[in-house]
Write a structure and sequence with these properties.
The structure is a homodimer of 215-residue chains. The first copy, chain A, is mainly α. Chain A has nine helices and no strands. Chain A folds into two domains: 67 residues, Homeodomain-like (Arc Repressor Mutant, subunit A, Orthogonal Bundle), CATH 1.10.10; 146 residues, Orthogonal Bundle (Tetracycline Repressor, domain 2). The first copy, chain A, is elongated. Chain A binds a DNA duplex (30 and 30 nucleotides) through helix 1, helix 2 and helix 3.
DNA sequence: TTCCATTAGCGAACATGTTCACCATAGCTG
DNA sequence: CAGCTATGGTGAACATGTTCGCTAATGGAA
């Protein structure tokens, strides 16, 4: 990443000039974010002091707060890209057959991420849960998109004839979301995340909710 | 509440003497807890500093930490009695007919509590979610008891013939728990808790999970 | 080019949760 | 009663997230 040199200013177009400062800001933001990602992973959330982070990123303490409202926002920002990629990957590698298999596939991928470091994941979930401000809204949007994608899977399952035609795909997605989220929280409450067990729970719930004939 | 006077020591039985110091400790704990309850309710969680609380309770700053591990524990301790009462009341005033009605009744009572001050409730849930230490375990036990009670309701519904005999009451309770919890979180994510809407969600989910004939 | 407004960058200062060494007393032991 | 131990009570000290006024440089305006 090569910075435009100061002397060249007069050769730049207006747009280039306009973009330069903004670009520099974006760069330092990136530096902070990357340093945060590493430090959080290496030393955990609480142990990663804003001062240590500033030092590691090579910026001033106050600079961090010019880019992120507070520590929780920074935590969420540092890991939402990762999580986003995992979700995208999960949807790309979807099994062809069966809505249940598909849902469990996605669940497994995401649980896998949280399972690698439960203690850290607890902090992440805790801080992300009711996060306010810019990053909170980003999270909400991602959640909304996620549910929309899930609903899409349900829609296809209905078209396949796997689910009855009167299925409300939106409600279906919400039900799955409830199972997924509860399973996640239950798993994280234990010291080690038992993915097997949690997947079994979600699978059972899906079975009962979507594939059981009652009375 | 009248304290035993120092001079009377020699007239006390061994047990009374033994109990005295412990009793005094319990008393100051109570004083702190009550002051915390009031201050949290009046000024909110973040605005209630440990110093203000110490001042209000008439104890030293350090004293608080002889009774509670940290601020989140104090928050949870201050409100888990309230919540416990609400749950007990909800079970006492249970409608006779219909498991769905019963579940929604309980849900409504609890949501009602959280709805009165969503901002505060967000803090409470956030801090209680993965709370460690003594108070975390108490919470877990209460949750377990709650689920057991719910399972009991399911069992009765099975005996009534309202639900099929092969119903797994434990799984049923967990499913309800997932709906209840998700509904709570969704509701609290909004600035004002729309109890009506959330109850509708939980009701719909219960209907679909327990009373829908699929295919 | 020169001037001006905006803002990224910065760290001292502040607020607050938490720790800890110390004190006083309860309550046991002889 | 006399001495000892354990511990409730205490606030100074500390660590850390966050704020805020300052500086310098960017980039637009005259």
């Amino acid at each position: 990443m090569e910075h435009v040199h100061h002397n060249c200013l007069y050769t730049m177009t207006a747009q280039q000039k306009k973009a330069r400062r903004q670009q520099q800001k974006e760069d330092t933001r990136r530096i902070i974010l990357d340093a945060a990602y590493v430090l959080f992973a290496e030393n955990g959330y609480a142990q990663t002091t804003m001062r240590k982070l500033a030092s590691r990123a090579g910026v001033g303490l106050g600079t961090i707060f010019k880019h992120f409202q507070n520590k929780p926002s920074l935590l969420v920002a540092a890991y939402q890209e990762d999580l986003g990629k995992i979700v995208v990957d999960a949807f790309k590698s979807l099994p062809e057959a069966g809505i249940k298999k598909q849902l469990l596939h996605i669940t497994e991928r995401i649980y896998g991420f949280y399972a690698t470091d439960p203690s850290f994941s607890r902090n992440l979930i805790k801080e992300a849960l009711f996060l306010k401000g810019e990053h909170g809204e980003i999270l909400d949007n991602q959640l909304m998109l996620f549910l929309k994608e899930i609903a899409e899977l349900f829609k296809k399952a209905v078209e396949n004839g796997e689910l009855p035609v009167d299925t409300n795909v939106h409600k279906g997605a919400l039900a799955f979301g409830a199972f997924y989220f509860s399973g996640l929280i239950m798993g994280l409450k234990q010291t080690t995340f038992n993915t097997e067990e949690r997947l079994d729970f979600v699978g059972t719930m899906i079975d009962h909710h979507f594939f059981t004939k009652n009375r």
